[in-house]
Write a structure and sequence with these properties.
alpha+beta; T-fold; 8-stranded antiparallel β-sheet; 3-stranded antiparallel β-sheet; 8 helices; about 25% strand; globular
Length: about 300
């Protein structure tokens, strides 16, 4: 009788514990990050969501404070760390990825939306300012040559996603998704208990060209359709070839998948510019790429991943 009573008490205690445990539900919020609509979706107790939301926004605000266009912070530990990451990809890509293209972004009007085509002489004067190897890194600061200007646009957004996702996972969030205008990080299973489905935008048509199924991975896309202007039917986009000073040619978009959003972000730009993207991606075995060329043909490089093509 005593054993039955004890078992009954344990059962009641277990039921009470379950009923008092906070129930986790999917929570969603949107806000602006680097002038892009960012969506946060996590599985957590509803009462805790505002805390996590504020945590992500705080991280994003700090990243924007150090890496936004026009900011000239050369001493922050965040800047020094990200510079080291960027410099490695600069070397691995033989200069195809280069954050010192700031003078080109300015000359072409992408910093203030005053789009224009610089003259050949202007480009010739700017090119000697380009090259991360011209930047000196000391323990506490970066030293730039006169008139050099950094453009963190191809790596900083992804860096913020990495930090935000890591902070949420450290708080015990086991399933989540952060998407900032196509640069994203997802971990755990989606609300349907399967891999997250990510659409790859068609570079020339409405809708999607393909669907990725990923989990515990980041993805980033660089495309000639994201920021561009046209003059006399000629498209001029924001992804500059640092060797020529002109928008890179040969591709419409590059999507990179891998474990870090910052590296995906930077590699997508490097592969977009490179004439031999397979050489670069082979140096990063944990990353894969989906490339759409100017003629509409596609290719998959590097790490294999789940992709389903949609009918055009």
């Amino acid at each position: 009788m005593a054993r039955k009573f004890l078992s009954f008490c344990l059962l009641i205690s277990f039921i009470i514990t379950l009923s008092c445990s906070p129930k986790r539900k999917w929570q969603t919020s949107t806000f602006i990050y680097f002038d892009t609509v960012c969506q946060l979706k996590v599985l957590c107790p509803p009462a805790d969501f505002n805390l996590y939301r504020r945590q992500v926004r705080s991280i994003f605000s700090e990243i924007e404070a150090h890496f936004s266009p026009g900011v000239n912070d050369l001493t922050s530990p965040l800047v020094l760390k990200l510079f080291s990451e960027a410099f490695k990809i600069y070397k691995d890509s033989k200069g195809d990825f280069d954050i010192s293209v700031g003078p080109l972004s300015k000359a072409w009007g992408f910093l203030d939306n005053t789009y224009r085509v610089p003259s050949k002489n202007e480009i010739s004067r700017i090119l000697p300012l380009i090259g991360m190897d011209k930047i000196k890194k000391e323990k506490t600061k970066l030293i730039l040559k006169d008139k050099m200007k950094l453009d963190w646009g191809a790596i900083a957004k992804g860096y913020g996603l990495d930090l935000a996702a890591m902070s949420l996972q450290e708080k015990g969030i086991k399933r989540g998704f952060i998407n900032a205008g196509g640069d994203l990080f997802c971990w755990g299973k989606n609300p349907e208990n399967s891999s997250w489905k990510i659409g790859v935008k068609h570079p020339r048509k409405k809708g999607y060209l393909a669907i990725l199924a990923i989990k515990d991975l980041a993805a980033a896309t660089t495309g000639d359709y994201q920021r561009y202007f046209e003059i006399n039917g000629q498209r001029y986009h924001h992804v500059f070839n640092p060797h020529t000073g002109y928008p890179a040619q040969g591709k419409q978009s590059v999507t990179v998948i891998g474990p870090q959003a910052s590296t995906c972000d930077a590699l997508a730009t490097a592969l977009f510019i490179s004439r031999k993207p397979e050489i670069i991606i082979n140096k990063y075995p944990d990353f894969g790429a989906f490339i759409v060329y100017s003629n509409g043909k596609t290719s998959l490089l590097g790490r294999s991943f789940d992709i389903r093509f949609l009918s055009n």
